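User:
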Amino acid sequence: MTVQVVTDSSSRLPAELRDRWRIREVPLHILLDDADLRDGVDAIPEDIHKRHATTAAATPADLSAVYQQALADSDGDGVVAVHISSGLSGTYRLAERVAVDFGGAVRVVDSKSTAMGTGFAVLTAAEAASAGGDLDAVTKAAAAAVDRTHAYMVVQRLDNLRRSGRIGGAKAWLGTALALKPLLHIEDGKLVLAQRIRTAKGALAALIDQICAVVGERPAALAVHHVGNHDGAQELAAELSERLPGCDPAIVTPLGPVLAVHVGAGALAVCLQLAE
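Assistant: Predicted structure:
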């Protein structure tokens, strides 16, 4: 058989890609009132980002069950699990602990990102496994992909960021900002402020300029995510295609309910993976 690849629901991999590469997904959780909702499994209100919901990591039981299934399907070749950044969720640390029970047959990689920032590393691992790579080779491929990945985001409202506490150094400016449309960046696995911008148009322009500066003349895989802003995401993807003709068209998907809880309505994000 071949090494099997696992991720979590934050990766935002389109279903057709998960199916093509036989990638298993462990659900993250949303806590709403007295309900514990599993992302990708249970029905979650579309306006979850407008409610006073919180999020939680994947559970050890879910991680263990999926790893066990994947290991069985690998016929002993092993499992590589690529998870949401340890700086954004407790999932990676829990996954490390669960992996110990499998005696080295399960390797866990910190994507240091989320959404397709994680997803691109997952796909790289799956491609390496499909090519016949052993457990070491697939793990190294995923880790190398992490180093080529970048993610940026523009949010329209600050309320969710204030509640979430997921952005580093935010207290100094979140409390006094009025119409601020911050450009955020995932740096060393944490969500940080890249630029403070006053208008949505200016923030979007800064986002596009930043992506173009990072990509330069190199080929790159691109993904555009949104929270209830499909038209804005399509326009952003079209602008990137025009500015970066050497790249394939961006994958466009919702950011998903877990991440939407933290960034709020209208958010737009771009994840990219530079070619080797």
